[in-house]
Predict the structure.
Amino acid sequence: MSLIRWEPFDEFDRFFREVQPLVPNRQNSMGFDMAVDVYEDGKDIVAEMNVPGLKGEDIDVEVEDSYLRISGRREEVQEKKEKNHYAKEIRRGSFERVVQLPDAVEQEAVSAQYKDGVLKVVMPKREKTADKKVKVQVR
């Protein structure tokens, strides 16, 4: 008879694998892919987000302090009585995502482009200035 090593955390993993179908993933159940890619491209910080099914005017982009806020609204579609839905997973209504930026950006120079369901926000990094040395007199 061989011994089988007991791994207590394997029991937790098994439990959550079995329970997961009962608890839907929050992002998937919302119907919006709220993931944002943030990367550096030369002197710019770029953020990309998939927001399909919207018009450019339905998306708001704001940069304040060191945060990027992307919000929008997908309008509710009037349903026909003849439809018998088997599943209705596409979320309608408003969404918002706030991302902390890795560096300070020139807020006035931020630009955004929406094409083929992908929002791309380009934010030029603020030039780093040398810290001034200030002599403080002690009284």
Q: What stands out?
A: The chain has two helices and seven strands.
